[in-house]
Amino acid sequence: MSGKTVYDKLWDSHLVKKNEDGSALIYIDRHILHEVTSPQAFEGLRMAGRKPWRLDTNVATPDHNISTDPAERAAGVAGIPDATSRIQVQTLDDNCDHFGIKEFKMNEMGQGIVHVMGPELGATMPGFTVVCGDSHTATHGALACLAHGIGTSEVEHVLASQCLVTKKMKNMRVTVDGELGAGVTPKDVVLAIIAEIGTAGGNGHAIEFAGSVFREMSIEGRMTVCNMAIEAGARVGLVAVDEKTVDYCKGRQFMPSGELFEQAAEYWRTLVSDADAVFDTEVSIDGNAIAPQVSWGTSPEMVVPVTANIPKVEDQTDEVKQKGVERALEYMGLEGGAPITSVYVDRVFIGSCTNSRIEDMRAAAKIVEGHRVSSSVKQALVVPGSQMVKEQAEAEGLDKIFTAAGLDWREPGCSMCLAMNADKLGAGEHCASTSNRNFEGRQGNGGRTHLMSPEMAAAAAITGHIVDVRTFSGEQS
Amino acid sequence: MKAFTQHSGIAGPMDRANVDTDMIIPKQFLKSIKRSGFGPNLFDELRYLDEGQPGQDCSHRPVNKDFPLNKPRYAGASILLARKNFGCGSSREHAPWALEDYGFRAIIAPSYADIFYNNCFKNGLLPVILTEQQVDVLFKEMNAVEGYQLTIDLVSQKVIRPNGESFDFEIDAFRKDCLVQGLDEIGLTMQSADAIKDYEKTRQASQPWVFGAIK
Ligand code: SF4
């Protein structure tokens, strides 16, 4: 018999019951809730007269549609301008109070984007199954978790039974060996992977990211990569445990301590794929060859290296691709064949669960330090992923660097990643964004998103157009 | 949950690949705390010429006459014909809620995004998978015939065309069973409460740190 992958190990250790038809009941260790996908689940629970199975597994926080404006935030829930958003946040507070669920409320220390908050508080532990009503839950896989997004019915199912009915996925390994060049970040690695395998390339698979590039990568960087597994079609993305994983976990709020920590760590270290494990699909990419990446179209696979030109319709091999490129170019208001660096940006967004951690803040600050946001840029937002990130960044003086350069320093939340609050693009506006999706209308009706790393977005804010961060000098052109 | 055994109805088109959940139900409508009422905003950005707002009466909004589902011939459509990777994007269950609330009972496409596929079953919506060629055949027939009707028989796993010919489709037994019987999945899981408790006991003994962390 061949060995097991990390995913196999996680699956086996959470199996409660196998059904005859191949589905299984899987035990859930951590359930994270937010205001958008939970109200109907709580409503269902109430209607059926059910209670949460376990309280010490759930942790909640509002993030998706809270305001990031400091003045509005200071006014609390009542300060949320949009009535429906306000009701949702209030409903989360009420439901958590009613059922006794631990919640980090809007302005409490600990609050943040669900996928930033979970790991930083130590609520996400290696070897866990982690679910949340949000498709970017794979982020937690950076700590070798079996983590994926669920729908609202499943939120209710997990609340009621601590389990999910699911089927085992296939194993896929994406190996990136080599060394990343200067200015090439985890975001570029994951965008390059998506460009390579496509947005449906990982469908039905759990992806393990392996190879020297991930071994060298920080835990936060691994989160950026796992975060976007869903953009490659995979619900689950993960990285095996190593000493970085164990070190990251030490001392966090909900983590075990002392002897119990050592006992846990000993187990965590077994969460690596066996040498003889077999993957259903293998992909390998040369890390040395990855350049900073920028999306030009309306799907995360529509990505080019910053040195390249925007694709032309006539260069596409088949008719479906031609149509796709044609529609995307039209929506984006772009000309095929033009250099991607010729695209001017109206707004810049540095934030989202992909890139709003402290390392992202530091990287962006380093680029903008001593420069000014281009006068052609209407707005450049920096939205830390959590209260803790915000506090840390301010302790390091990063907020001052941002504001001195003319960027807005905001309160933590999802913000312009999905534009459920007031932070959004106007129709036709181009945005250099560190978020994860460039779908039509994602950042605002008619808005045009260009996905990239925090460094690249910061550089675009200064020059006013997309620019290769490796040759960026801070001069406006 | 509504049981699904057999359904006949008018087929309506969504003729593009990679229709994402934002397209199915734009995010401004996600703010509702209810499960129902999303139908009028299904495909909102494609269906109307203005920008939709939650809570608004859609009957007076300017309609995009070029959007196929707005054409009279597809009025009352309850089976959606779609292309590959339908429902990609977010995990929002509002997407199947909107489709269901609009009146769709089934979708036919060559492939779906995983989470969306999963979510359909939890809401009594049947996502049928046929090959690209078969879907092509249905599109062609539908375009040619006004009021084109299909019958989907879940029990025998067939999509039956007006000429009586049919396409077989695959579906996993558990999901089929739940849909056919209209079973509540949570109730079903609760029948395994003892197994869940046993699992917790074993885990508590071997990995005590898993429990009691969140206070
Ligand atoms: S930041 Fe964006 S992708 Fe992440 S949880 Fe929030 S809305 Fe979802």
The low-pLDDT segments of chain B are: none
Major beta-sheet overview of chain B: 7 strands, mixed
H/E series of chain B: EHHEHEHEHEEEHHH
Query: What is the mean predicted local confidence, pLDDT of chain A?
Result: 96
Number-wise, the strands of chain A total 19
Polypeptide structure, described:
The complex is a heterodimer of chains A (477) and B (215). Chain A has 477 residues and is an alpha/beta fold. Chain A contains 16 helices and 19 strands. Chain A has helices spanning 6-12, 39-47, 70-74, 83-99, 114-121, 152-161, 186-197, 212-216, 219-227, 243-249, 258-268, 319-332, 358-368, 387-395, 398-405, 454-463, and strands spanning 15-18, 23-27, 30-33, 58-60, 102-103, 129-132, 146-149, 163-167, 170-177, 205-210, 236-238, 281-286, 293-295, 303-305, 347-350, 379-382, 408-409, 430-433, 448-451. Chain B folds into two domains: 6-183, Aconitase, domain 4 (Alpha-Beta Barrel); 184-215. Chain B has helices at 21-24, 44-47, 94-102, 114-121, 132-144, 173-181, 185-190, 193-206; strands spanning 6-14, 79-82, 106-109, 126-129, 149-153, 158-160, 166-168. In chain B, strands 4-3-2-1-5-6-7 form a seven-stranded mixed β-sheet. The mean pLDDT of chain B is 93. Classes of the chains: A alpha/beta (477), B alpha/beta (215). The complex binds iron/sulfur cluster (SF4). Iron/sulfur cluster binds at residues 63-64, 113-115, 134, 136, 352-353, 414, 417-418, 435-436 of chain A.
Any descriptors?
heterodimer; A: 477 residues; alpha/beta; five-stranded parallel sheet; 19 strands; globular; B: 215 residues; Aconitase, domain 4; seven-stranded mixed sheet; binds iron/sulfur cluster
List the helices and strands and how they pair.
The complex is a heterodimer of chains A (477) and B (215).
Chain A: H1 6-12, E1 15-18, E2 23-27, E3 30-33, H2 39-47, E4 58-60, H3 70-74, H4 83-99, E5 102-103, H5 114-121, E6 129-132, E7 146-149, H6 152-161, E8 163-167, E9 170-177, H7 186-197, E10 205-210, H8 212-216, H9 219-227, E11 236-238, H10 243-249, H11 258-268, E12 281-286, E13 293-295, E14 303-305, H12 319-332, E15 347-350, H13 358-368, E16 379-382, H14 387-395, H15 398-405, E17 408-409, E18 430-433, E19 448-451, H16 454-463
Chain B: E1 6-14, H1 21-24, H2 44-47, E2 79-82, H3 94-102, E3 106-109, H4 114-121, E4 126-129, H5 132-144, E5 149-153, E6 158-160, E7 166-168, H6 173-181, H7 185-190, H8 193-206
Parallel strand pairs in B: 1-2, 2-3, 3-4
Antiparallel strand pairs in B: 1-5, 5-6, 6-7
